[in-house]
Amino acid sequence: MRAVPISVVPGIEWPALLSPQGAARLSLMYQLDQSQWWPPEIIKQQQFIQIHQLLTHAFHTTRFYRHRLQDAGFNPKTRVTPEVFSVIPLLQREDIQLHLADMNSTAVPKDHGRVGYTESSGSTGKPVRIHSTSLSQFFWHAMTLRDHLWHDRDFTRNHAEIRVGVGDRTGKNWGYAVKVAFESGPSLMLDIKEPMDRQIQWIQEHRPAYLLTYPSNLREMAGRCLEQGIDFPGLIEMRAFGETVTEETREICRQAWGVGVKDMYSAMEIGYMALQCPGHEHYHVMSEGVFLEVLDDQGLPCRPGEIGRVVVTDLHNFATPLIRYEILDYAEVGEPCPCGRGLPVLKRILGRQRNMLRLPDGTCQWPAFSPRKWPHADRIQQVQIVQKALDHLVVRLVVHFPLAPEDEQAITRIIHDRSGHPLRVGFEYVDTIEKPKNFKFDIFVSEL
């Protein structure tokens, strides 16, 4: 698909002469198209030029960061080095909640635009609310457009979203990220609170080419469609956000509808951190917008194949600077991508600490218990596995018909095999498993 920009000059259709907003958007897109192919060392060099600007601003205009940066050895008159940057203490959610007033800049640059508020979804149980600027939104929209262009989406088709708080409505276009530069088809919105049967019916009625929703919603929808033999003619791609996308999620979508899943890694308080590579299932860090670190237990950078904590710095929010912010996610560092992009690779995004299985021997792992492969999986409407103690899991089930004791024993053996430990496994049958207010749903949750 070749996206032709909108011209605003009468009588000129092509090449397009854009509005000031559209010209600014495509000007940035041109830069992003160039920088993605730079060598990693050049990308990092440019990042630290911008980091110096950010740290200098935070040093001079916030009480919180002035002391923190001084203690780390930062000098605004000297270019910041990776060594100095790595000494800056990690920023925790509690820091933001306790010290927000001191973190807010007293002199946001006028050209960064209007200052507003951004709030995290609260999926960690510790929501944060920060200031952000119009410039931050500008970069958010640019990365949205990059995602569309990377995956060659046809703007003339309709795009559907099933998510929290959107109601049931139809928009004229794909939203501000696209409309300032390109014409597009309509956008369709449905609230995720609608029952699954209603969601499926709505998709059948509108026949979207692209659908964006949570991975847990995709899994449930795909399972229901497989059970009932429902297809979605015209569907080109499923898009996911807000939760971890597992290989099982990708596989069940291929089975149900014959389409792939394109994922993104973002946070409300940061924006886009990584996008799925156009040619692979791993992710490229959005290095033009964030400096993302994956650190081991000693605070050192992880190497390819290692899993660590995600720490991120927003390069462009000068209203409430977020510098070395531990976002409470874990990720696995990947090898350089065969596609040729110099943007760093995340092989997997593993989720929060609450999604980690802790074992009696002191080790931890990211469980993949694959409920779709359990005995009589077609009877299971909902499942959630909860860790109650180091050696005790409870499998909560919503089922059409109760499972037999031998089925429970088979599931227990699968859990033992996957975890490598003879954990005590109990079963609890319930009428429904309630989802949190933000409708982000975890198949595995640790209460430890």
Automatic annotation (TrEMBL):
Transmembrane spans = none
Task: Provide the protein name.
Answer: Phenylacetate--CoA ligase family protein
Q: Which organism is it from?
A: Desulfosudis oleivorans (strain DSM 6200 / JCM 39069 / Hxd3) (Desulfococcus oleovorans)
- Identify the InterPro entries for this entry: ANL_N_sf (IPR042099), CapK_Type1_Caps_Biosynth (IPR053158)
